[in-house]
């Protein structure tokens, strides 16, 4: 590090912030953790009485990091974290974000996690970066977000086709699409949050999705019974290849709604229900995703099931199924691992349900007693 540079370490997360006097520029620096980057810092901050005084606004934030080789999943985990906050790589082990209070906080959290995992991380502010122009950096952000929007548009158009086909049918057809469209809106919002420079694809995605939501608001919805007693001895139908939400929902149905329930597993598309059958977690189902609720949560809400111990299970199922970490329960990753193991070892849905029932029975007893 140059002799005229000052390093300040925050007390909370040991993040290093490099501070240079306003009369100098520096072509190369190295932190005490031996993480190097070729960059220029110009008039970032002066230091007085332990207070940072900004003398010229910095444009960019840089995260310099070194991730240990062990555990092997850490590198992928940090890469996903950086993707989620919208950072783009500009050099080896150097990621950049536009300067704001939110992006500074985001980098600090990532850096702290790297440090706590045994790696090295520094967060720095720069007015420009040697070897790449601000316009080129902006183009990197545009490219990253255009890729996100393109992937989302594929799903929007696919569901749009299903919506157009379903709208030609008589009766209440919108119920099975509400949850899926809501998840598209959530994905779009997440991309928009990190679309710092308004990539062009965002306008098309917003327009198509808003049009779809408007159609759904005018569509007829399926009315469902509110009393659990109306579902005694029924056949409950869902898609083949059951996973956490369908396994958990089937367990909830059998234990709290219909103890004589029979289950049928069918193809995701094209199934015509028999009289008296109740569909769940599938297209145009009686019970399926609604808004940001998974099917397990919808069953509890609509049928007013409030037994002690079920709410934590619903939160775990939600986080695993929707992958949004809404509740962030510490038991979630462990339950997800067991569910994945059950599904990997058992190809038949009845076998998956049998093994999953044992898991949910134990979870319920555990949470009920707490």
In short:
The chain has helices at residues 74-84, 101-116, 134-166, 175-193, 201-217, 244-257, 295-302, 310-322, 332-345, 349-368; strands at residues 6-9, 16-19, 25-30, 36-42, 45-48, 51-54, 60-66, 88-91, 94-98, 120-126, 235-239, 262-266, 278-279. The chain has 370 residues and is an alpha+beta fold. The chain has three domains: 6-132, Alpha-Beta Plaits (2-Layer Sandwich); 136-217, no CATH class; 228-368, no CATH class.
Structure description:
Strand 8 and strand 9 (94-98) form a beta hairpin. A 4-stranded antiparallel sheet has the order 8-9-7-10, sandwiched between helices. Strands 12-11-13 form a 3-stranded parallel sheet, covered by helices on one side. It folds into 3 domains: 6-132, Alpha-Beta Plaits (2-Layer Sandwich), CATH 3.30.70.240; 136-217, no CATH class; 228-368, no CATH class. It is built from 10 helices and 13 strands. The chain is globular, with a radius of gyration of 26 Å. With 370 residues, the chain is α+β, with helices and mostly antiparallel strands.
Features:
alpha+beta; 3-stranded parallel beta sheet; 3 domains; single chain; 4-stranded antiparallel beta sheet; 10 helices; 370 residues
């Amino acid at each position: 590090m140059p002799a005229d540079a000052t390093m300040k370490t925050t007390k909370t997360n040991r993040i290093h912030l490099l501070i240079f006097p306003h009369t100098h520029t520096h072509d190369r620096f190295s932190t005490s953790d031996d993480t190097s980057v070729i960059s220029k810092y110009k008039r970032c901050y002066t230091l007085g009485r332990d207070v940072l005084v900004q003398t010229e606004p910095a444009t960019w934030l840089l995260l310099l990091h070194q991730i240990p080789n062990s555990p092997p999943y850490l590198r992928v985990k940090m890469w996903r974290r950086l993707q989620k906050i919208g950072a783009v790589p500009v050099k080896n082990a150097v990621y950049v974000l536009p300067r704001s209070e939110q992006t500074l906080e985001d980098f600090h959290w990532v850096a702290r996690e790297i440090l706590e995992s045994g790696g090295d991380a520094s967060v720095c502010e720069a007015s420009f970066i040697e070897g790449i122009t601000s316009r080129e950096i902006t183009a990197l952000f545009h490219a990253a977000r255009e890729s996100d929007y393109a992937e989302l548009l594929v799903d929007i158009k696919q569901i749009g086709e299903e919506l157009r086909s379903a709208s030609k049918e008589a009766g209440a057809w919108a119920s099975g699409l509400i949850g899926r469209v809501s998840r598209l809106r959530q994905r779009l919002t997440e991309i928009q949050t990190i679309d710092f420079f308004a990539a062009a694809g965002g306008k098309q995605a917003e327009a198509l999705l808003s049009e779809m939501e408007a159609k759904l608001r005018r569509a007829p919805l399926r009315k469902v019974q509110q009393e659990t007693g109306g579902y005694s001895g029924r056949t409950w139908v869902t898609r083949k290849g059951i996973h956490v939400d369908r396994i958990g929902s089937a367990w909830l149905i059998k234990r709290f709604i219909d103890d004589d329930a029979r289950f049928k597993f069918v193809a995701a598309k094209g199934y015509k229900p028999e009289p008296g059958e109740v569909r769940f977690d599938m297209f145009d189902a009686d019970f399926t995703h609604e808004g940001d609720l998974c099917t397990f949560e919808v069953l509890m809400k609509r049928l007013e099931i409030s037994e002690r111990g079920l709410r934590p299970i619903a939160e775990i199922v939600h986080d695993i199924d929707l992958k949004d970490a809404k509740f962030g329960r510490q038991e979630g990753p462990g339950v997800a691992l067991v569910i994945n193991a059950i599904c990997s070892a058992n190809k038949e849905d009845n076998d998956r349900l049998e093994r999953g029932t044992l898991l949910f029975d134990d979870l319920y007893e555990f949470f009920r007693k707490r």
